[in-house]
Amino acid sequence: MPSERAKVSGAPVRFDPSKLEPGRQITLEWHSKPVFVLRRTTEILQAMDQPSHLQKLRDPDSRVDTQQPAYAANPFRSIRDEFFIVIGICTHLGCIPTFRPEVAPEDLGTEWIGGYFCPCHSSKFDLAGRVFKGVPAPTNLVVPPYRYLSGTSIEIGVG
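Above: the chain sequence. Below: its structure as tokens.
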């Protein structure tokens, strides 16, 4: 019999996405892991869909099917394009990437359109969790199972 703490750490997490402002992210905890929930703007979605951006990614089409549920195997890796949900653990050595939404910061270069940067070994991911070419991380960030219960409730851990 698992302890109450063990049961809670594996229990689904519910979240109201309507409270999240466009361009903002929050971090939740599920299975003792950080889960990033990002509300993307139209501008973010357009920038990530440009051919010049897609050619910089190792797996732009999310072909590694263990990295997301089937319903998130699409260009934006989500059920609804506006909301992105991902486990915030780098696929290289398990560090937690930082949310870097700013465009062209001095330390990441003029071609940076916003994304996640792993400070441990410099892996980079876009705002769909897709890994860039030429970095240590081998695969995209993992999308956990989730579902919409209503327009104001997402349940992470069930899908």
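The domain at 12-156 is CATH 2.102.10.10 (Rieske Iron-sulfur Protein).
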